[in-house]
Amino acid sequence: MKDTLTTERAPRTGQSATTRRGAYLLDRLLLPLLVGLAALLPRCLGLADFFTTDEVYHWVSRTERFAAAVGAGRWADTILTGHPGVTLMWLGSFGQSLERLAAGAGWVAWPDSLEHLAWLRLGPVLAHAVALIGGYALLRRLVRPGLALVAALLWATSPFLVAQGRLLHLDALLTDCCTLTLLCTLVACHAERPRPWLIAAGVLCGLALLTKGPALIVLPVLGLTLFALGGDRRTPRVPVSPTPRVPVSPSSLIPRLTWSVPRYLLILAVAAATVFLLWPALWAAPDRAVGRYVDEIVTNGGRANGDGQFFLGRSDADPGLLFYPLAGLYRLTPLELLGLVLLPLTFWGWTRARSPDPLVRRERATLLALGAFALFWVIVMSVGPKKFDRYVLPIWPALLTLSAAGLLMAWGWLRARWRNRATGAVAVALLLAFQGGTLAWYHPYYLSYFNPVLGGSAAAQRLFLIGWGEGMDQVGAWLRERPDIQHGQILSALPETLAPFVPVPVREVRAIDAVIANYAVVYLESLQRNDAPEIYARIRATVPLHTVTIHGIPYAQIYQLARPYTTPVNAEFGGAIGLLGYSASQTGGILTVTPAWDTRSPVAKDLTLFLFVFDAAGTKVAQIDVPPGGVSVKPTSQWQPGEQYGVPLPVPLPAGLPAGTYTLALGLYAPDTGARVPRSAGPAADRERAGPDAVLLGSVMLTTP
Fold this sequence. Notes:
By secondary structure, the protein is of the alpha+beta class. It is about 50% helix and about 15% strand. It has three domains: about 15-235 and about 250-450, no CATH class; about 470-560, no CATH class; about 565-700, abc- transporter (atp binding component) like domain (Coagulation Factor XIII, Chain A, domain 1, Distorted Sandwich). It has helices at about 15-45, 55-70, 85-105, 115-140, 145-155, 160-165, 170-190, 195-210, 220-230, 250-280, 280-285, 285-300, 325-330, 335-350, 360-385, 395-415, 425-440, 455-460, 470-480, 495-500, 525-530, 535-540, 685-690, and strands spanning about 310, 315, 490, 505-510, 515-525, 545-550, 555-560, 565-575, 575-585, 590-600, 610-615, 620-625, 645, 650, 660-670, 680, 695-700. Helix 3 (about 85-105) crosses helix 4 and helix 9 (about 220-230) packs across helix 10. The chain is elongated, with a radius of gyration of 34 Å.
């Protein structure tokens, strides 16, 4: 197998020391720096963007409480969740320390809640960049330098990894730890002195276990890897025969077990020691800490998502075995998918080129081990009913490494036909341009990325549950510009993700009848899960004022709620203005009628309202002609579809009007022509008394003024 993008070449005869030193600096310093920058920039820029649900409801407060407990020496209080999330909370605490240092020194102003989230995110983001550089360094020991570089750049720029790596959340950290653990184990299988690598694998495995319970999946993978590959390192290196290899015989099992079992136990022992040293709760309340850990795996991990799930166009408690393969395809970029499609060419090349080169054999073993790990992880995660696409994030570096192998094979074929010494640099530049351009276009909403080859976001929103809080920043920005924002509270399915962006309280949508609410935000994932259908039907009875669309996904619709009324009418004029109902009250000689208007489509003209009061004999005793919004609201030609109005309209009553029951009729007309707006729905008033296209409001009891 030919190295098509290698950065390591044997020194040529006569090559100067300066040239060799330059190649060494490129290989050992500049390329790792390139990888680190490619990983860091998209993850750290603009971290004060939006709150995800898990961050605002869980991880911000958990990190703050963890830091406070550690600072006060209250070790048992570091049990905050069964995940257990300890690595995340340590890193978030580090970000919080940087925040306090910067603010205390006067370098930055004391942050608000969103900027505070950005500081907490900074610790994990820095850890991701360091982990990616370390992953690249490990991978270079296992595969060709060119393949390691392409794989690392894919890790750095994959939208799925970047999206999760910017958050104060667990899955990206779990991905880092599991990947580095497996790579260290693979290096140990081939190293002359494996113990340092085994210890490193144990530490990283412990960090994975401290991050999230599914890290347990990696444990059997490590043991099988040591057994399958570690035994070969003690056999003599002989040229590879063109004949097929003989399967492992029973007589070879003992040496393999003798070599692998002690080393596997070393990994487990170091992992256990790491868990104990870094989780203070184990020092004070080990039984409670372990109990929470086990309960999280069994109880939470073994049940369907409590808020509901959505897959293939329907609400579904358990999406089934197809979920992760399909979700994975949609989270790949076209370039990453292309590499996986081309991967069979790599395996086909192996069958044609049986090279005795140890590096080639090591590369094959590495790719097979990574592929086996990815397959095993997906199988195990598919067993439980609770499924989110981020739960397979730990296989992403393995998949991208396999994709890099496919891309490299294709590039080697192209290079053979386009002989140019700069082809390696061109390939890296093209990769960064494509992936970097994708990231720039989707910044900062990387969660909204779906493979355009498969229909992109238009198809994904019909297949997967979408919405984790992204877009609420734009919802808040739009609402802040509303002149009536202070007139009531806001309803939302995810109130805490919206609250930092608006100046009024935000309540859960189920409080619709308990609070005076002005606006309601309908989030896409609530509709997909068919959450509270009766409430959302009420909210969506009118048209949305505004829709927040990000990369083709309508994340949130903003509705203005109907103005209060006591008597329903359900009338409509010209198909444009709805009269939902009205309220009426009398104070002395003034009858105040407050219609609840619903703007359903644009109104071409400024209209005037007429309101008639008839006595029991049908005689008109009072009348007003005013704009529907009175003098305090803009004219109807400026009403926006979805806007709701409820302006009190005073009707003077004649002196000495007898007490009794009176009938109200209402309509709209164009003041310049006098033409009435057609009544398209609602009860009709008596045409002989009120004229055409008047709506019968009903009866009111009046007292003598």
